[in-house]
């Protein structure tokens, strides 16, 4: 259950990052509201995961899901650059997440 909570927390981190971008500096109400709610949910699910998982594992995977997820949303939805070096960097983050999962209890 902790890993499911952690994945949900990571996905919500991507949602709030995207909503923050769409809020245009907090000048648009609905993206700002979505950002605030998803941010609170993300931290809440992270806290649930941390009941069982070690801090280093939970926090690293949470931020990694957010980083890679935001990168993918940026490319797929916002038309951001998908250069080879950026893709390699995201792949290295992803491989680090897999290694962290494989080396962690729970």
From TrEMBL:
Compartments where located: Cell membrane
Membrane topology: Multi-pass membrane protein
Database matches in InterPro entries: EmrE-like, Small_drug/metabolite_transptr, Small_multidrug_res
Transmembrane segments: 33-50, 57-78, 84-102
Top-rank taxon, per record: Bacteria
Pfam families: Multi_Drug_Res (PF00893)
Keyword line: Cell membrane, Membrane, Transmembrane, Transmembrane helix, Transport
Similarity comment: Belongs to the drug/metabolite transporter (DMT) superfamily. Small multidrug resistance (SMR) (TC 2.A.7.1) family. Gdx/SugE subfamily.
Designated name of the protein: Guanidinium exporter
Species of origin: Methylobacterium fujisawaense
């Amino acid at each position: 259950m902790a890993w499911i909570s952690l994945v949900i927390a990571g996905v919500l981190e991507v949602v709030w990052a995207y909503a923050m971008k769409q809020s245009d500096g907090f000048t648009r109400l609905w993206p700002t509201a979505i950002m605030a709610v998803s941010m609170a949910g993300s931290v809440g699910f992270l806290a649930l995961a941390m009941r069982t998982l070690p801090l280093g594992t939970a926090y690293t995977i949470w931020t990694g899901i957010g980083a890679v997820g935001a990168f993918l949303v940026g490319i797929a939805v916002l038309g951001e650059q998908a250069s080879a070096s950026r893709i390699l960097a995201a792949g290295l983050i992803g491989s680090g997440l897999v290694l962290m999962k494989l080396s962690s209890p729970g």
